[in-house]
Amino acid sequence: MPVRIPDNLPAAEVLESENIFVMSETRAANQDIRPMRVLILNLMPNKIETETQLLRLLGNTPLQVGVDLLRIHDKASRHTSIDHMNNFYRDFEEVRHNNYDGLIITGAPLGQVEFEDVSYWDHIREIIDWSQRHVTSVLFLCWAAHAGLFHLYGLNRTVLEKKRSGVYNHKRTSEHFPLLRGFDDEFFAPHSRFAEMSLTQLRQHPDLQVLAESDQAGAYLVLSKNNRNLFVMGHPEYHKSTLNDEYHRDLAAGLAPQIPQNYYPGDDAAKPPVARWHSHGSLLISNWLNYYVYQLTPYDLSDMTAITPWESKHS
């Protein structure tokens, strides 16, 4: 089934060239099917690149997914045209009274900034609080995962001396969660961040459960026990070239970055990188959409009280 996107969204051409099943809103409006409604709060600098990465994953499921794109403010973006933002993105006031099946909050290049010093921190908190009443399930990625854990559960991160960048091996901590169905015992996922959450604090928190972790990169998948919030510490949505692009961007900026670990053959940045996480990323998003969104969300989105906890519905 397709992911439904706005007419003329630039990502459509790229996705269609990769045989990702996407459908314009005009075409989808003629089908008598209720699609899942997913809101994406895109905090990344390059909006179009991130849109394409996320839509690539959302389009690889058997569900029709309608997507709304949300911006955190209406200030001009250095990497995305104002026309694109005005044509395809909504402001929070436009969606405040809506309910959604799912919300994805992306990462942001703010790993070395204290949360309270982020210019839009109050707005982020407002949207997170809103999501707990208006969204069936929320997927937090990278910086957003740290921000969500801090705001909702009072857990703070530790800023690292050097950026954690590379592709790392992970292992499941349990076999009995729907989110992990089809996962191998070990799998790879990319990370690109300046901070890390304490595994000990995450394991000890009564409202959280760590589902996957890495000896090198720490916690990866953390799920709230009410199944409403999924925190992903890495970037399963990244394209094969994204870490390479970030590395060369930082080199050009004179930041002397370390070579992303376990990414280039022989750690030689002159060689084309190897992608080892795409199948995992697709399965992760597919399982999230199926078990934590589609299986739980009410048919009538105006009635969020109809959400049935996973344990009782599938026990």
UniProtKB/TrEMBL annotation:
<dbReference type="InterPro" id="IPR029062">
    <property type="entry name" value="Class_I_gatase-like"/>
</dbReference>
<keyword id="KW-0963">Cytoplasm</keyword>
<keyword id="KW-0028">Amino-acid biosynthesis</keyword>
<feature type="binding site">
    <location>
        <position position="249"/>
    </location>
    <ligand>
        <name>substrate</name>
    </ligand>
</feature>
<dbReference type="InterPro" id="IPR033752">
    <property type="entry name" value="MetA_family"/>
</dbReference>
<feature type="binding site">
    <location>
        <position position="163"/>
    </location>
    <ligand>
        <name>substrate</name>
    </ligand>
</feature>
<dbReference type="GO" id="GO:0008899">
    <property type="term" value="F:homoserine O-succinyltransferase activity"/>
</dbReference>
<comment type="pathway">
    <text>Amino-acid biosynthesis; L-methionine biosynthesis via de novo pathway; O-succinyl-L-homoserine from L-homoserine: step 1/1.</text>
</comment>
<feature type="binding site">
    <location>
        <position position="192"/>
    </location>
    <ligand>
        <name>substrate</name>
    </ligand>
</feature>
<feature type="active site" description="Proton acceptor">
    <location>
        <position position="235"/>
    </location>
</feature>
<feature type="site" description="Important for acyl-CoA specificity">
    <location>
        <position position="111"/>
    </location>
</feature>
<feature type="site" description="Important for substrate specificity">
    <location>
        <position position="192"/>
    </location>
</feature>
<dbReference type="GO" id="GO:0004414">
    <property type="term" value="F:homoserine O-acetyltransferase activity"/>
</dbReference>
<comment type="function">
    <text>Transfers a succinyl group from succinyl-CoA to L-homoserine, forming succinyl-L-homoserine.</text>
</comment>
<comment type="similarity">
    <text>Belongs to the MetA family.</text>
</comment>
<dbReference type="InterPro" id="IPR005697">
    <property type="entry name" value="HST_MetA"/>
</dbReference>
<keyword id="KW-0012">Acyltransferase</keyword>
<dbReference type="GO" id="GO:0005737">
    <property type="term" value="C:cytoplasm"/>
</dbReference>
<dbReference type="Pfam" id="PF04204">
    <property type="entry name" value="HTS"/>
</dbReference>
<keyword id="KW-0486">Methionine biosynthesis</keyword>
<keyword id="KW-0808">Transferase</keyword>
<protein>
    <recommendedName>
        <fullName>Homoserine O-succinyltransferase</fullName>
        <ecNumber>2.3.1.46</ecNumber>
    </recommendedName>
</protein>
<dbReference type="GO" id="GO:0019281">
    <property type="term" value="P:L-methionine biosynthetic process from homoserine via O-succinyl-L-homoserine and cystathionine"/>
</dbReference>
<feature type="active site">
    <location>
        <position position="237"/>
    </location>
</feature>
<feature type="active site" description="Acyl-thioester intermediate">
    <location>
        <position position="142"/>
    </location>
</feature>
